[in-house]
What we know:
The protein is α+β, with helices and mostly antiparallel strands. It has helices spanning about 5-20, 25-90, 115-120, 135-145, and strands spanning about 95, 100-115, 125-130, 135, 155-165. The two termini are about 60 Å apart.
Amino acid sequence: MKLYEIGETYLSLINAIESGEIPxxxxxxxxxxxxxxxxxxxxxxxxxxxSLEAEALAIKQEEENLxxxxxxxxxxxxxxxxxVADTMKNVGxxxxxxxxxxxxxxxxxxxxxxxxxxxxxxxxQFVKVEEKRSIMKKEAKDAILKDKEILSFCEVVENxxxxxx
Length: 165
């Protein structure tokens, strides 16, 4: 029997007792039977709840462990990419192709800001206002490249980023 069915039976039994439909000598046994069934069902559900709570806690802990592992792997990736890029730059190697990998530098442009406060005051249209002011570097870089404007407090520099396919 489902818990709500036991509850309904219990309420029906109470109503029947109050209306005098059940003899006085049968009340105790009948109530004990329904009450026992109700207690067993509630106890079993409580055990399921405890089990689910323990499982949720274990999953939460595993999420933290996985996050730590991912972070460690990402740091490893960055270190190894920098190691390969530095070595290739030192020997003047722009690209390398093997049967398993194609490794080459890809040019990209990035805005380097030397005086953020001055930039934000001069170009408020490139300032993103959240809890902290910051420069919208992509939009500012695109505008600077388009207008070919030279500023003393920032410049657009060309980078070489390692790409592995």
